[in-house]
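In this supplementary section we document a worked example of the pipeline. Step one takes a protein sequence of length 180 as its only input; no multiple sequence alignment statistics are reported here. Step two produces a three-dimensional model, which step three serialises into structure tokens for compact storage. The input and output of this example are shown verbatim.
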Amino acid sequence: MPASPWTPLTGGCPCQYIRYTLTAPPLITHCCHCTYCQRESGSAFVINALFTAESVIHTTNQEPILVTTPSLSGKGQIIARCPKCFVAVWSNYSGGGEAIRFVRAGTLELKVDIPVPDVHIYVGSKVEWVRIPERVETFEEFYDVEMVWGREVDERRWEVLERIRTKKEMGDDGQKGEQN
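The serialised model returned by step three reads:
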């Protein structure tokens, strides 16, 4: 069965200073229950739709401020925030580098466009009253990306994984070496 055509989505911060268009479907959508996301969002979880960086297009000339915050991996994450209203619009984690943007689904223009989570992660720290649908995959912590993403052969996902692998194999100077 052919995939349905993607309709670009738009979003941004509440004050409209930072705006974006998503030109391709998400690679996967996470509902993260880690304590860092709980604190960062002020909620019980955060929904992140993962997009290739090149499919997240700025539609205003304004740039978000980049704030480095702690993460469970110990390597931190870089959160892109509006410099006026300080809402987080996306983040980049060390594992995906600049190749993947974790777009905060709540910043999409139309709430009907918020993708349903494919996986719930860090459910070991989810709040007790949150109920996860039975058919959705759950993980106590994070998951093996190649196993989860490999269940459905998707050229876009594999291309992103190859870019991440190559970057890890190459040092900052572009020479083959160890990743910090």
